[in-house]
Amino acid sequence: MRKFLLIWIGQLASLLGSEMTNFAITIWAWQVTGQATPLSLILFFVQTPRVIASLFAGVLVDRYSRKLLMIIGDLVAGISTIALLLLFLSNNLQIWHLYCTAAVNSLFGFVQGLAYSASLSLLVPPQQYNRATALNSVQMSGAFILAPALAGGLYPVIGLKGILIIDLVTFFMAIATLSIVAIPQPDRDNSNRQNITNIKQELSFGWRYLLKHRRLLAILGFLLITNFIDSFNFAILPAMVLARSNNDPTVWGRLLTTFGIGGVLGAATMSIWNLPKRRINGLLLGNAVWKGGLVLLSVTQSMVGKLIAAVVSGFCSPFPNSSNQGIWMSQVKPEIQGRVFAARDLIAGIATPLGAAIAGVLVDNYFEPAMQTNSLLAQLFGGIFGSETGAGMACAIALFSAVGVIISLVGYAFIDPFKASKT
């Protein structure tokens, strides 16, 4: 796993810089607007290009150098950061600039991420799939631990400018590690060459493959629903925390750091004990528990309760993603993973921009006003969430997360035909 670990270290540095920038930009955007809608629109412009890229990214990943595609993704992200830095230094940075850079980074970042995930099955042996995907979860959770803590402490001192400069340095580190590692390309078998005679067939290959595999389609339906719920929640979660903490960025940073600590512990547990033994349990039960943690986070007003909820959610968060990726890696041949994974991400990702698009509008125009008046919603839940600013956001997150818990548990009735040990 030496090649994988070297790439992993470089991508960890890049992710750390990116998360520091995301944290700083979230604080800056909230201070400028004071509304949930701009924050949710940033997420919308992050997710929408991913859906578009899913139409063609799989063909690119299966036909061209995956190493080159990953390097291009880091280069474009670095250029976007430079653009934000120049706009900020010239006092011209506006909210719509964040939408533009988010869209560009998302488009190229999706191709990069697909190239990376499709390369894992050739970088590590099958018996190490769980550990590799768990280490990727450690990477994500580690960034969540360090980035908010660093950004929260440095932002008052060096501001958005300093954070963006740090981000640039980490991009160069990621490119350097990719440059010195050989990433294997899969052989395209003869049957694929005979069956795929033109670009139209290549673009539709992943869809046709999924239609023939009902087990994967069942998981795909589950992902479609949970992605919508996750997108809705995380589009307004930063605004909710800031609104209910007197706009204190350290509270948001502390919660993100605690969530990251829980994520590292969960991923380490998966990696050390090679868990879960049945990946379907990691996907469904893990989803149910970590969404239950979001319910607790939205209900409680005490900092201790919020930290407990963040730890619980963070610990369980690696299980669904790692288990899901492990299932797909074990079910799909390496030479077609790019196209199949792209089709999967396209279908499952359709709900993500939709959730982000409606979250801010629904909260700012219904949930927030309703909780501050004598409405039916306030009568039902006012005793739990209160009536101050942020109560409507908390109510919305709790309701959507509760639905997510129910869907995860009901999912056993539809997805539990996975009886094989691999799933």
Q: In summary, what is this structure?
A:
The protein is 83% helix and 0% strand. The protein has 423 residues and is mainly alpha-helical. The chain has a single domain, classed as MFS general substrate transporter like domains (Growth Hormone, Chain: A), CATH 1.20.1250.20.
Can you walk through the features of this model?
- The protein has 423 residues and is mostly helical.
- The protein has a single domain (2-180, 199-415), classed as MFS general substrate transporter like domains (Growth Hormone, Chain: A).
- Helices cover 83% and strands 0% of the residues.
- The chain has helices at residues 2-33, 36-53, 57-63, 66-89, 95-123, 129-179, 190-195, 199-211, 214-243, 249-273, 279-299, 303-316, 318-331, 337-349, 351-371, 376-385, 391-410, 412-415.
- Helix 3 (57-63) packs antiparallel against helix 14.
- The longest helix is centred in the middle third of the chain and has 51 residues, at 129-179.
- Residues 190-197 and 417-423 have low confidence and may be disordered.
List the helices and strands and how they pair.
Elements (H helix, E strand, L loop, with lengths): L1 H32 L2 H18 L3 H7 L2 H24 L5 H29 L5 H51 L10 H6 L3 H13 L2 H30 L5 H25 L5 H21 L3 H14 L1 H14 L5 H13 L1 H21 L4 H10 L5 H20 L1 H4 L8
Helix pairs in contact: 1-5, 1-6, 2-5, 2-9, 2-14, 2-15, 3-5, 3-14, 4-5, 4-6, 5-14, 6-10, 6-13, 8-14, 9-14, 9-15, 9-17, 10-12, 11-12, 11-13, 11-17, 15-17
Shape: globular
Assembly type of the shown chains?
Answer: single chain
H/E topology pattern: HHHHHHHHHHHHHHHHHH
| Residue fraction in strands | under 5%
Poorly predicted segments: 190-197, 417-423
- Give the class from helix and strand content and strand pairing: mainly alpha
What would the average pLDDT be, to the nearest integer? 82
Q: Tally the helices.
A: 18
Number of domains: 1
Number of E-type strands: 0
